[in-house]
What does this fold into?
Amino acid sequence: MKKILLLTLVLLAFNCKGNTQKPSKKQYTVVKPEAEWKAQLTEMEFYVLRKAGTERAFSSPLNKNYEEGVYVCKGCDTPLFKSEHKFDSGTGWPSFDQEIKGNVAYASQSHSFYGTEEHCATCGGHLGHVFNDGPRETTGKRHCINGVALKFIPKD
It folds into this structure.
């Protein structure tokens, strides 16, 4: 019995996470209380951007938008993707082969089935995921983005 108790205590001691083991949280330039985000965004936008949800496939009008312009974050207007990098992936979500460098942040963990989670580098809003099954003739990447996380600004 003493051996079991000792073993349990040793396991607990080595499995407890101290402050030094906690992942660091990125500090975003745009930070708002949840109530302010809820007032600014629709229910679905809030669900996707602030709660890392996913909109239903083929539900976004931006999926079939092929106008020239730029796609910005719905939460803070940070430019995220250019229309010249958009392609039809057939997945039902707006897809891009590359982001605007420095404006998209990535989760530290990669998940093969769900890809690597992407966020707005300014406000931390959840955008979608990036996969390695995009067009081989360009980057090989497919940024699969929730349309409700984006606002399209047409080229003047």
User: Anything to note?
Assistant: The chain has a mean pLDDT of 85. The first strand starts at residue 69 and ends at 73. The radius of gyration is 20 Å. The CA atoms of residues 32 and 123 lie 9 Å apart.
